Amino acid sequence: MRAVRTTVNRVLLGAVGLVLTVLGGSVLAVGLGAPAPSWWIHDGRRDVLLDDAERTRWREAGWWWPVVLAALAVLLLLALWWLASVLRRHRLTEVLVDTGDGEGAVLRGRALEDALAEEAGRPDGVERAHVRLTGRRGAPRSRVRMRLAPHLDPATALHDFTTGPLAHARDAAGLASLPTEVRLKGVRHRAERVS
Question: pLDDT tens, 96-135?
């Protein structure tokens, strides 16, 4: 899903950038005295963007300006939504911990990620573990990537992770559940010579 969002984001940015570059370059070129292109809507350098005839053409139609303002408002809302989705943090910064006294506490998300990754990387055969917390403060989720040595069985590594580090992290944070997506990948190694 993230790859699709990244691709859509890049395509939209590229298309908007291309349109704005062409229009801005055309306005600049015509403003500096270059001949107007054949598709240009104005005649020359001294022409205004909206002359009196164009500006007052739809004045008697009561629907014109509300439609223009509604379309601009929709474009503004789409642009703000897009900006918010680009700037939104994908990493959970803190987790709410139920302390039992009704007040609760806050656990830094990075601390939980580091502790979980450090414990997941301890067993023999786990070359590296990387953890990222997502979701909401009260209902975190985790994504774990583990690189395994060739001799380690993936099913064993997954079982050891879910019964060990994941259970410890869930209990330490006082969470009823910690949904986790685990990706296992083998470490590249040279072929062994058999004689």
Answer: 887 777 777 888 889 999 999 999 998 888 889 999 998 8
pTM of the model: 0.54
| Closest residue by Cα to residue 116 from 128, 126, 130, 105 | 130
Report the Cα 2 to chain-centroid distance in Å: 7
The tokens of 58 are what? 């739809």
Which tens digits make up the pLDDT trace of 54-70? 777 777 778 887 888 89
Average pLDDT, the chain: 83
Q: In the numeric block, which tokens belong to residue 70?
A: 């509604």
Bridge-based pairing state of the strands 140-148 and 180-186: parallel
Q: Give φ, ψ of 184 to 5 degrees.
A: -105, 135
Rounded percentage of the chain residues whose pLDDT exceeds 70: 92
Using CA atoms, how far residue 103 sits from 69, 88, 175, 193, in Å, is 47, 28, 15, 62
Structure tokens, 167: 């259970």
Residue 176 has pLDDT above 70, yes or no: yes
The amino acid at residue 20 is L
Cα(162)–Cα(160) distance, integer angstroms: 6
Angle between helices 64-87 and 2-31 (to 10 degrees): 130
Q: How far apart are CA 37 and CA 177, in angstroms?
A: 63
The encoded tokens of residue 192 equal 């062994």
Nearest CA to 173 out of 94, 101, 103, 98 is that of: 98
